[in-house]
Amino acid sequence: EAKAAGKGRLRFFDPVMQEAIARRLRLEEEILRGLEARQFCVYFQPQFDERQKMVGAEALVRWRHPERGVLAPGAFIEVADAAGLMDRIDRIVLLRACEQMALWARLPALSGVTVSVNISAAQLYQDSFIDDVLQVLAQTGADPARLKLELTESMLITDMPKATERMRTLKQHGIRFAIDDFGTGYSSLHYLQQLPLDQLKIDQSFVRALPDDANSLGIIRAIIAMAGSLGLEVIAEGVENQAQRDLLQQNGCHLYQGYLFARPAPAEEIAAMMPLHEAELSPSRRPAEPEE
Ligand code: C2E
Ligand code: MG
Ligand code: MG
Ligand code: MG
Q: Start and end of every EAL domain (predicted)?
């Protein structure tokens, strides 16, 4: 009808809108080309216990953009998701994470670390999800018991029965599960109890507000108590200073991830943090693309 057509026409000729749409399309094409040129890679951010021992690492996708340097997911994930390209990125990340885990398993200092992988909603609800995960584990020889999949509350409530069933199946193979950004979504004790979970990750917004913000500390304490009564591990992410770390420890959180300890980095930099003879065993897999 006339009104809708008028609106559509207005939008089409609005130069600001048009530029935004064009930029989005360009980015979409660039992501596609980037996938074909294998520009997507994985950084790892170590996780530590209270004795400063590295106990795990989170796999975080990066795009080695030929002109713009190393890009974090904030620069492309939304567009990739909307364009239906996230499953291709997810596959790369899961494969690289499992390959790396299998390599680390051969180094004494790193053999016990877990590797956490962020799962997207699109990936979780794909029909092939379970087979894909099991196939990558079989193909890489990675230990399923060292793989941790990070899900968010909002992803889970989309289709709780299906999510629960998939988690249970993978759990039978030893795979572990964490809820990422915990405290920012819909959390009910009822569903937490039903899910085969292993870990809650306290969202960094609460950690960032420490040590001064009493409300955030209150929420963190509640999360730690909840994790305790459900028998779940709890880890704080986004720990940037010693005051935050100490307060977390005093309140019963014994696992940490954040810039205070280490930033996300290519796998060989993680190995380089370990004793020299072990670092030498790590293969150099750094692509030729320019650095950040
Ligand atoms: P996330 O899973 O909550 O990951 C933590 C983010 O916090 C990472 O950002 C990490 O670099 C950042 N971070 C870690 N420590 C600190 C700190 O001390 N201070 C601050 N300010 N930030 C810290 P990144 O790598 O940009 O990832 C952002 C988000 O993108 C992730 O949040 C995750 O939701 C998503 N993402 C990353 N990699 C993947 C992936 O492979 N697949 C999917 N589906 N999503 C991913
Ligand atoms: Mg995460
Ligand atoms: Mg998080
Ligand atoms: Mg997040």
A: 24-278
Pairing between β-strand 199-202 and β-strand 147-152 as defined by DSSP bridges: unpaired
Ligand 1 pocket residue status of 170, Cβ below 6 Å:
no
**81 exposure class (CB count in 10 Å sphere: 0-12, 13-18, 19+):** middle
103: how many CB neighbours lie within 10 A of its CB?
19
Look at ligand 1, atom 42, and give the residue with the nearest C-alpha: 118
Q: Express each pLDDT in 190-242 by its tens digit.
A: 788 889 999 999 999 999 999 999 999 999 999 999 999 999 999 999 999 99
Residue 287's pLDDT is 42
Other C-beta atoms closer than 10 Å to the C-beta of 222 total 12
Q: Is 266 in the pocket of ligand 1 (CB under 6 A)?
A: no
pLDDT digits (tens, 9 = 90+) for 39-75: 999 999 999 999 999 999 999 999 999 999 999 999 9
Q: Which two tokens stand for residue 192?
A: 């937490």
Q: Which ligand is nearest to the CA of 96?
A: 1
Cβ–ligand 1 contact at 240 (below 6 Å): yes
For the beta carbon of residue 207, count every other beta carbon within 10 angstroms.
Answer: 24
> Is this model's pTM higher than 0.80 or not?
yes
| DSSP one-letter string for 106-169 | TSTTTTT-EEEEE--HHHHTSTTHHHHHHHHHHHHT--GGGEEEEEEHHHHHHTHHHHHHHHHH
Model confidence over 9-30: pLDDT tens digits? 555 568 888 888 899 999 999 9
Q: How far is the CA of 267 from the centre of ligand 3 (A)?
A: 20
The secondary structure element, H or E, covering residue 92 is helix 86-104
